[in-house]
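FAQ

Q: What does a record look like?
A: Structure on top, sequence underneath. For example:
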């Protein structure tokens, strides 16, 4: 599948999962009053399964049923979730920037890196 088509599909999946995850994040942080980095971790865990399923089937059209595929995906997302929380902690808790803005910016950058890693390492059927 051409990279442009995958990017469009990844963008669609990303839009759905990130809007859902960001909405959860705002709710958890602003209405349940959980510390924003912790809220980022909780909301990240809640959307990872949906992200895995949609990216595997729709974006990368991967039909492999290998357990290491799931393990690698979740290890990647666990790392991304903690990097996201660390960015929020650094720029919001320590430096005083609004956590809502920092979380949004962080999601964009992390999502770009996740696409590259998923395309060439996680769902690459030629490896």
């Amino acid at each position: 599948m051409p990279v442009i088509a995958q990017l469009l599909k990844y963008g669609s999946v990303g839009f759905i999962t990130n809007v859902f995850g960001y909405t959860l994040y705002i709710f958890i942080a602003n209405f349940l009053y959980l510390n924003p980095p912790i809220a980022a971790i909780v909301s990240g865990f809640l959307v990872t399964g949906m992200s895995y399923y949609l990216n595997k089937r729709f974006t990368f059209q991967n039909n492999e049923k290998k357990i290491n595929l799931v393990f690698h995906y979740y290890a990647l997302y666990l790392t991304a979730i903690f990097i996201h929380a660390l960015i929020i902690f650094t720029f919001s808790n320590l430096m005083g920037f609004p956590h809502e803005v920092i979380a949004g910016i962080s999601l964009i950058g992390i999502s770009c890196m996740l696409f590259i890693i998923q395309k060439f390492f996680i769902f690459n059927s030629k490896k």
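Q: Is there anything notable about this one?
A: The chain has a mean pLDDT of 94.
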